[in-house]
Amino acid sequence: MRIDALTLEGFRNYDRQALTFHHSCNVIYGENAQGKTNLLEAMVYLSCGKSPRARADRELIGFDRDKARILGQMFTRDREFRTEVELFRGRRRKASVNGVPAKNNAALSDVLHTVFFSPEDLMLIREGAAARRRFMDLSLCQLRPRYGEALAEYHRLYEHKTRILRDSGDYPQLLATLPDFNRRLCQVGAVLIHYRARYCRALAEYAAQAHYECSGQREELELRYQTVSTVHDPFLPQEQLFAALMEHQQSHEQAEIASRLCLSGPHKDDLEVLVNGRSARQFCSQGQVRTAALALKLADREIHKNTMGEYPIMLLDDVLSELDPRRQEYVLNRIAGGQVFITCCENDRLDTLLSGKVFHIRGGEVLA
Ligand SMILES: Nc1ncnc2c1ncn2[C@@H]1O[C@H](COP(=O)(O)OP(=O)(O)OP(=O)(O)O)[C@@H](O)[C@H]1O
After folding, report:
1. Is 287 annotated as a binding residue?
2. What is the residue-wise DSSP string for 247-301?
3. Where does the record place the RecF/RecN/SMC N-terminal domain (predicted)?
């Protein structure tokens, strides 16, 4: 799997830029705030229809533009693909693959998978559960089309339910609609738990191996998927997951109405990380946290490889400079075999370390 060419028009600080890439390694360097991350962000968008950092698509459109266009030429499963996305202010985006309209994000993920790794991810372990849920969701949306659909529906229902609870003080009659929302949230929630449990099991296996190697065989990493307390086994059939979610929901109904908050459901899931049997979040040193985060990202890459039969595109956004030489070397050795994009501020070391193509970015343009 590789991206051969990318064209950006009106995307973030790119006015119009066409780029062709090396099949293996691409180093993108430049000073701060020149557009290096924007470039990687466009590639993530092509792979899943979402930005890893923007909350709304309109943030991706150039400040003084009405629309943005991202066009990628990819090579996957021995075939060429052309994915095009157009984003507009105030109207729905348009996306197509080889000229055929893409119905949803899954149609984009069918062509391209990316694993995006940025300095913020180095604190994935220390942050609250939301960061680890985002990590699982971004990956699962690319891996499993049904998961992406279920997650989108869950978010819609959750928003709606939140509004009902919030407004129920002034309009108590709204509460009559709550049982229908709760029921559907539990049905869709069961789908999310089904996929998350399997993903976390695979992630745990690969991440343990990577962490063990990267720590010089000194540390053991364990991952535990945590979901709603009445779900004693997340691998049970979905009907049983649904029943367990309903049980939790019913026991929290009064508390939800009193607090006007959604208290029950997999929107509070987490992935607990332990190193040598202790909570990494509480007890790990900065270095251990980095190794664990690195292990999660490398494990994610292996899962994509197993699912697609090809390595996903690895996007390393300024992370190498944050790692010590031993970890840098480990990452660079582990990611050989697929296409990789690496951004950095200085080009003094990487082009000697890696062979491939080097791009110098300034003000949303690639300098010759
Ligand atoms: N919608 C937008 N329209 C135009 N410019 C934008 C838009 N969003 C962000 N920018 C600009 O893009 C630049 C940031 O680009 P980017 O995040 O890619 O930086 P970077 O080169 O990765 O920098 P760093 O090394 O600091 O991470 C900023 O100058 C910002 O003002």
Report:
1. no
2. HHHHHHHHHHHHHTS--SSGGG-EEEEEETTEEHHHH--HHHHHHHHHHHHHHHH
3. 3-349
Contact 192, 147 (CB under 8 A): yes
The answer to whether residue 122 scores a pLDDT higher than 90 is no
ipTM score for this prediction: 0.97
Domain boundaries, the chain: 1-113+312-368, 125-308
Domains 1-113+312-368 and 125-308 share a fold: no
pTM, full prediction:
0.91
Going by CA atoms, what residue is nearest to atom 7 of ligand 1? 12
Q: How far apart are CA 69 and CA 73, in angstroms?
A: 13
41/307 Cα distance (integer angstroms): 23
Centre of ligand 1 from the C-alpha of residue 192, in Å: 34
- Which residue from 27, 31, 37 has its CB within 8 A of the most atoms of ligand 1, so it is best to mutate? 37
Q: Which CATH class is domain 1-113+312-368?
A: alpha beta
Q: Within 13 A of 217's CA, how many CA atoms are on the CB side?
A: 0
Minimal CA–CA distance to 36: which of 344, 269, 322?
Answer: 344
Report, at the CATH architecture level, how domain 125-308 is classified: Up-down Bundle (1.20)
Q: Whose CA is nearest to atom 9 of ligand 1?
A: 12
* Pocket-forming residues, ligand 1, beta carbon under 6 Å: 12-13, 30, 32-38, 59, 61-63, 318, 345
**Residue 236: HSE in the Cβ half-sphere, 13 Å Cα cutoff:** 13
Give 333 Cα–ligand 1 centroid separation in angstroms: 30
d(CA 334, CA 61): 35
> Is 356 one of the annotated binding-site residues?
no
pLDDT, tens digit (0-9, with 9 covering 90-100), for 288-312? 999 999 999 999 999 999 999 999 9
Element at 229 (helix H, strand E): none
Atom 5 of ligand 1: nearest residue by CA position: 13
- The C-alpha atoms of residue 154 and residue 192 are separated, in whole angstroms, by 9
The answer to whether the CB of 140 falls within 8 A of the CB of 191 is no
